[in-house]
Amino acid sequence: MRIHGTSKTKESKYNSTVGLIISIGMLVVALMVFDFSNMPAFGKIFMIFWVFAVCAQIYQSYRNSIFSNKSLHHEVTDHSLKVSGGAKSTAPKQQDGNVSHAMRLRQIEQLYREGLLTTDEYEAKRQDVLDEDWGK
User: Fold this and answer.
1) What is the C-alpha separation between 73 and 110, in angstroms, rounded?
2) Fewest beta carbons less than 10 Å away: which of 14, 60, 79, 90?
């Protein structure tokens, strides 16, 4: 069985707010603790890039945080993942065309109770049904 497709998600406002607070703390520590006058040239260049990266993180976290009404990401969360390579199912369909997972689970359990499936077969078939997409 193979899962392929795209899944776009966005960080929650509360996670962005925590990231904002941590990033501001990192910037304050860098500016207060390090003595840039005695630092070698490589260290100064590194700190310039590091401060720039932290400022970019602060900007992004602020735009996605609880303090802002605008978000940097405007795409809708998309979970268009598809499963391929699995066995085809001959399960009964509901009127709207979706597979009745509950009905299939009941049928598998009935076959197990009647002794037509071993414990291993029952657990494998049941897990196959549980692993399928129930969203549609």
Assistant:
1) 49
2) 90
